[in-house]
Amino acid sequence: ARDEELWRLSCVKVWGHSIGTLDAQDAENSIVYYSWRDMFIRRERVNFSGCYISKTTYLRMGENSFQDQFYRPVQLVEYYRYIRFMPDGKVLMMTSADEPSQGVTKIRNVHNIRPDVLRGRYRLFGDTVTLVLQKSSQSRATIGHVRQRRGSVMPLDEDSNATQFLIELRIGHSPKRRCAQLVWSHYTLVQKRNKVDTSSEFDLTDAKYPSLWFSPVKSYHLDADAPLV
User: Fold this and answer.
1) Can you say whether the dihedral through the CA atoms of 63, 67, 68, 74 is positive or negative?
2) Radius of gyration (C-alpha) of the chain in whole angstroms
3) What single DSSP character describes residue 140?
4) pTM here?
5) Close Cβ partners of 182 (under 8 Å, ≥ 6 residues apart)
6) Beta bridge partners of 31
7) Which of 192 and 97 is assigned the larger pLDDT?
8) 168-to-63, 148, 176, 186, 193 alpha-carbon distances in Å
9) 3-state secondary structure (DSSP) of residue 181
10) Is residue 156 scored above 50 in pLDDT?
11) Contact between 136 and 146 (Cβ < 8 Å)
């Protein structure tokens, strides 16, 4: 279990092409890893054996009553955001009103994704994870002909009209688990219409985009513990 080659393969599986080398020093944090095992234990990464979940709650004003113009109802809206990472570089994100006990089951089967789930790929850069997502409502025939540019973090859709979501999250820790928190740092919507890109940035307030916290999901272990090679 202390064999360095096993730990090197584990690091490659987590960080891929951005793994770097052991003798390279993190200039920003002045961190040096003395072995591949040391890197796997101390370096920021995402957890595969579960799901990152956040809960958003806000009040929405309803319409005035026809019988009493001074009465206007207030609705309490609650919804959850789910992000699931996989060892092969894929990522799923879903926004739903379902409680976590039901919500995690909707992104359990990675081969049969619901239309309301965003799918894409992610890359790790230090303590930042970058996601590039798009809607999964494409037909299977279209998905089968998706091309991928060398070095790209996201399969390229041949459709000239597409919508992509570019997200950056900072990895944080909880007192009981490392890399258990994801904090929003950047969120951009890019719409492509007739080969013209239009981007819009989201206002990342704590109320609308609270931090996501990792929660283990037993049914995800099969994909998370897949063989290294």
Assistant:
1) negative
2) 20
3) H
4) 0.78
5) 52, 83, 129, 169, 170, 171, 172, 211, 212, 213
6) 26
7) 97
8) 37, 21, 24, 5, 24
9) strand
10) no
11) no
